[in-house]
Amino acid sequence: MAFQVLPILAGLIVGWARKGSLWAIPRINLKLVWVLPISYLIQVVSIHDLNGISYQITLVVSYIGLLIFCGVNYRVPGVLWAMGGTAANFVVMLCNGLRMPAYIPAVEKMAPQLVPLLIRGQYGKSIAMSDSTHLNFLGDIFYFKIPPQSLVSVGDILIAIGLVLFLQDAMRVERRVSSSGKHTSEMVK
Fold it and tell me: Is residue 64 within 8 Å of 42, Cβ to Cβ?
């Protein structure tokens, strides 16, 4: 999740460069927006504090919440990208016992001390990528060096693209007002 800081900054910078305003963002009409913080909080708690069935239930509830949020807001620019990334991450985890396969050479670059933990079993939500893990191309295969250092999956990249598209577009909502004073975007009511 730390990787998402950079796309947020990028979206804000692009939005600002396109003469957008931070004050326009709250005018976006998102449905079920409360689901986002709750789903992310559930996910963080499940990854760091829970084991067994409680981990599994909370992680599944978290992903279902995120997918429902994306589904009801699919017309908002960037949300389909985020939905695709969320679905990709969820599918690879479903196929691997609700764990994300992590590419060991990438883990070695980021945090070599974690490699023995992964090889012995799991670390947080991650397991060591191997021949017995499934859909490895959707796992955490990329090492992202720019702080905050992270392992990144294809799903994370899709979510990042969605964040940039959403933010830069959201910052321009006020600019999409026609001469009659009516908004031309479906996002603003």
Answer: no
Beta strands 142-144 and 126-128, pairing class? unpaired
As separate numbers, helices (DSSP H) first and strands (DSSP E) second, the chain gives 7, 5
Sign of the four-CA dihedral 53, 123, 68, 133: negative
Identify whether the C-beta of residue 103 lies closer than 8 Å to the C-beta of residue 127. no
Sheet with strand 100-102: strands edge to edge:
100-102, 126-128, 122-123
Does the pTM surpass 0.90? The reply is no
Tell me the CB-side half-sphere exposure of residue 153, using CA atoms within 13 A. 27
Residue with tokens 């980021």: 110
Per residue in 65-121, pLDDT tens? Answer: 999 999 999 999 999 999 999 999 999 999 999 999 999 999 999 999 999 999 888
**Beta-carbon neighbour count of residue 64 at 10 Å?**
13
